[in-house]
UniProtKB/TrEMBL annotation:
SUPFAM superfamilies: HIT/MYND zinc finger-like (SSF144232)
Stated name of the protein: MYND-type domain-containing protein
Pfam families: MSS51_C (PF20179), zf-MYND (PF01753)
Domain MYND-type: 44-84
Length: 428
């Protein structure tokens, strides 16, 4: 039986420090399955360390990815080399054809061209882009003000935003402390997710869940968890990662309780969930899905089929807790892909969709109507009380969002529903 935990070095002990005031140090192994989980152009891709801007070694071919020294550059060379050559060739071609500009008056134009650049690479490369490579193209360094790419420096607090020499003063006015702290926390969450500390917390949380606390929302639930196990109630970085991991299964639980459809789960010993991920997924987070076995007591076997990026194509048998073993419960995690939402229409089962903001939620509803070729409305739209509290970068806006902020529910895609129920506060 393969475990989803990895038992490398833990996060350095900064649980009592403010996770928004400085970038933490990664102390795990330098292996592709860890350092390729996310991308940031202003830190070493391999060890995730932040160093003085002038000492960071940028790849001299593609000028997108950076390293702290030649050793770490060589560690990543074999993985980066093939795409690096394509990037260099494509940049020359696009510049000669004047399809990319030196700077942009509008952020939307710059994001459009980054997407175009990524699409061209996808056409030329003989494999699928890895999740961090998708991030790489959407994270090409540019000035926050003019979106130019010459003479750039990084914010020395969050290492997530850049500015050019000409706009150093304007940058200080635009990039305020509030958003800087959010970006710092986002980077720290990404680094912390490479370690085993958050997955260890999941085991403690599941034991806490068996005490039957009130399930009000993510924030109050984790605060109650902290109150039961610590004297210090300030959130550590691992707690933010925990909120992100728990958001998925708790959103499913919340959605089922709000659909007024108890038949979905009642008296079913086997329960199947398909998760369609538009972004990459951290394998460590899969451990959190055992939560559903502790919330749905009639379920003996929970089968989760994960459809998305970053999943190794094997079937995982997750090592569940001793209580679940005692009652012979099981959790299977099966990665696969569905071609279209059309396949879900024939299953006569509920579809839960989440989005980080209202715009993306409404765009998803529009796409489902196009795919199914009918004017179908969701049965329910509501703000999700169990969204993640870990900020993440939105590559469409270069701003911050929170996973699973809004929840959209279709009870049955085979039926046309003309009435959508929106709960108060949905548009806030």
């Amino acid at each position: 039986m393969q475990s989803l935990f990895w038992h490398g070095p833990n996060l350095n002990p900064i649980d009592d420090e403010d996770p928004t005031t400085g970038v933490i140090k990664y102390e795990g192994e330098y292996l592709p399955k860890y350092y390729n989980q996310f991308f940031n152009p202003n830190i070493c891709h391999v060890c995730k360390s932040v160093i003085d801007h002038g000492k960071l070694l940028q790849c001299e071919e593609c000028h997108i990815i950076s390293y702290c020294d030649e050793n770490h550059k060589n560690i990543h060379h074999t993985q980066h080399n093939s795409i690096c050559k394509l990037i260099k060739e494509l940049v020359v071609k696009l510049v000669n054809e004047k399809k990319i500009s030196k700077s942009y008056a509008f952020l939307g134009d710059w994001i459009r061209d980054k997407k175009m650049f990524k699409t061209e690479i996808k056409r030329k490369i003989s494999r699928k882009l890895m999740p961090y490579e998708n991030q790489m193209f959407m994270s090409i360094k540019s000035c926050l003000i003019c979106h130019g790419r010459v003479g750039l420096s990084a914010c020395e607090n969050c290492y997530s935003v850049n500015y050019c020499t000409r706009h150093s003063l304007a940058f200080k006015d635009t990039h305020d402390k509030f958003i800087c702290k959010k970006f710092t926390l986002s980077l720290n969450v990404n680094i912390a997710a490479l370690t085993d500390r958050p997955t260890e917390l999941i085991r403690d949380f599941i034991a806490f869940l068996d005490k039957k606390p009130r399930l009000l929302d993510t924030f109050r639930l984790i605060m109650t968890f902290l109150w039961s196990s610590r004297t210090q109630l300030n959130w550590s970085i691992a707690d933010y990662v925990l909120s992100d991991y728990l958001s998925g299964p708790l959103t499913i639980y919340y959605g089922i309780t709000r659909t007024d459809s108890p038949h979905i789960i009642d008296k079913q010993s086997n329960f199947n969930i398909h998760i369609i991920c538009t972004n990459s997924i951290n394998n460590n987070s899969l451990a959190a899905w055992e939560v559903l076995l502790h919330l749905f007591h009639d379920v003996d076997t929970l089968v989760i089929t994960i459809i998305g990026q970053g999943i190794i194509p094997n079937e995982y048998k997750y090592e569940i807790c001793e209580l679940c073993k005692r009652f012979q419960l099981s959790l299977n995690l099966k990665p696969t892909w569905f071609q279209t939402v059309k396949a879900i229409e024939t299953q006569y089962c509920p579809l839960f969709l989440t989005s980080p903001n209202l715009f993306k939620g409404q765009d998803t509803i529009r796409k489902i109507r196009i795919i199914l070729n009918k004017n179908i409305n969701p049965d329910l739209e509501l703000k999700n009380e169990f969204h993640s509290h870990a900020p993440s970068k939105d590559y469409e806006t270069d701003y911050i969002n929170y996973s699973n902020k809004y929840l959209i529910i279709y009870k049955d895609l085979s039926k046309v529903n003309n009435i959508c129920k929106r709960y108060p506060g949905y548009y806030k």
